[in-house]
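Handout, section B. The chain below has 204 residues.
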Amino acid sequence: MGVAIRTAGDGDRELVVRLLDEAFQDDPVSGWVFPGDEYRRTTHHRLMAAFTDVVLAEGRVDLTEDGSACALWMSVPADEPGHGEERPDDDGFARMRQAVDPDNERVELIGRLTAGIHPSGRAHEYLWMIGVAPGRQGEGLGTALIGSVLDRCDQEGLAAYLEASSERSARLYRRLGFEASGEPLALPDGPRMWPMWREPRTTG
């Protein structure tokens, strides 16, 4: 049976934020940005809300019809830097830190570091985040969400990019055709992230 997927709208914001917050509570990178279980439980959702707002405004959020999984995508044109790469007047990372958790420099640093490794020069779809409700993981929902976009990428000859936040997720993405794009990003005193790129597959 296929997984029903729709595009989320503003009315789905709170659902998406809650879904991402729950899905990433035990994620290594979230644990680095917000160390300590209690701190993470009370603060992490603010960063997920900030991410959701950006993608609802500038990208696309795909949501399973039953609300159990979501994927945040940004389309990056060929003539623009990758998501988050700074322009002379861009202080978006600092603004996000002020809005989310002003005393936590890692909120700002994670944006700057991932922007620094993001490929530029070629149009691609950027999988910013994908979250599956903890009780529904392992059912193939994430694969279905990603696969629907990858099918379109293959039809349009478009590449895709992401940063895996764990070795487990990197293995999943490799099965979907992603390959390592440069060396892993080692967060200061923290875990690694794996930049991964996928060339479109020819059809027919």
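Note. The longest strand covers residues 124-132. Compare this with the example in section A.
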